[in-house]
Amino acid sequence: MADGFFTPVSGLDLPRFAGVPTFMRLPHVAPGHPRFAEVEVGLIGAPWDGGTTNRPGPRHGPRQLRDLSTMIRAVNGETWVAPFETVRCADLGDVAPNPGDLMDSMARMEAFYDTVVAAGIRPLTGGGDHLCTLPILRAVAKQRPVGLIQFDSHTDLNDVYFGTGRYTHGTPFRRAMEEGLIDPKRYVLIGIRGTAYGREDWDFAEANGIRIIPVGEFHARGVDDVMAEAREIAGMGPTYVTYDIDFVDPTFAPGTGTPEVGGPNSWQALEVARGLRGLDIVGADLVEVSPPFDPSGGTAWLGASLMFELLCAMAESVVRAR
Fold this sequence. Notes:
Elements: E1 41-46, H1 61-69, H2 83-86, E2 89-94, H3 102-118, E3 122-127, H4 133-140, E4 146-151, H5 172-178, E5 182-192, H6 200-207, E6 211-214, H7 215-221, H8 223-234, E7 238-244, H9 266-274, E8 280-287, H10 298-321
Helix pairs in contact: 1-10, 3-4, 4-5, 9-10
C-alpha cells in the first residue's frame, strides 16, 4: 500500500460529486488486472434480483450504493478503525448476471466468486436480492461450512414458493443448509418479525439447531447483549455475515422490496455491525436495497454506511490472519 494505489480518492483532492463512482472511491481492480492478486478485501456489485417474489428493484442497488458510498471517508469516527490504511481494498466491479436465466445467473456468480476466493480475497458485496447470497456461499464455503450471522426481518429459510420455486430470495438459506454450506450450530438470525405464512421455516430452524432472535427479544435485550450471544454462537471459526437492509425499520430504510415495521433504528443498525468485531469474517454482503422505492438515496446511504462498518470488521479479521 506504500505506493498509494489502494488508497481511495479523497474529497479534499476531488469533490465527491466528481469522478467515476466506485465503491468508496477505491480503485477498480477487476479479475485479470495485474494487481488483482494483491487485493485483500474486494468490494463487488451483484446487480441481480431474479429471486424477487413481489416488488423488484434491487438489481439497481449496487449502482446507487456506489454513488452514495462516495460520501464515505477514510476513518471510522466511532471505532477509529482506518481500513484503507491497514488492508488493500479495491472495487472488483460487478458480477454479470443473465437477466433471462436464474440458474445461469447463479452459475455466473459462483464462478466469479470462485475467482475471488481462489485469489485469497475476502468479498464484500452490495446486492442485489437475498438469493445472491447462495452462489456467494457456494464459493466461500466450498472447502468447509461457515458460521453465519444474518441480520434480517425474514428467515429466508422457506422451502418452496408456489409449489415448485426452490430458488427465490425467501429460500437461499434452506438451500445453503441442504448443500452443507452452513454449520447450523454456528448460525444465528437476528431481527425476525412481521406476519407469516406459517411456522414451517421456524420449525426447520429449531430442528437443525439454528438460533433465531426475534425482534421483540432484540429490543428487550439490547444490541450489546444480543451481539455478545451472536459472537459466542459464531465462535472463532470462519464466519459469513449477511445483512438484509429490511432488518432496519422502514422509517429509516424505506427503499426495499419487503419492508417490515417495528425494526431497529439506523443507530442500532450500525451498532450491530460494530458488534461483529473480533470474528473471523471471510465474507459479507448488504442486500435488498431497492432504489425505485427510495429515489432520494437515503436507504442506499445507510446501506453504504453499513458496508463501511462491515469493511472495518473485515479489515481487522485480515490483519489478525496475516
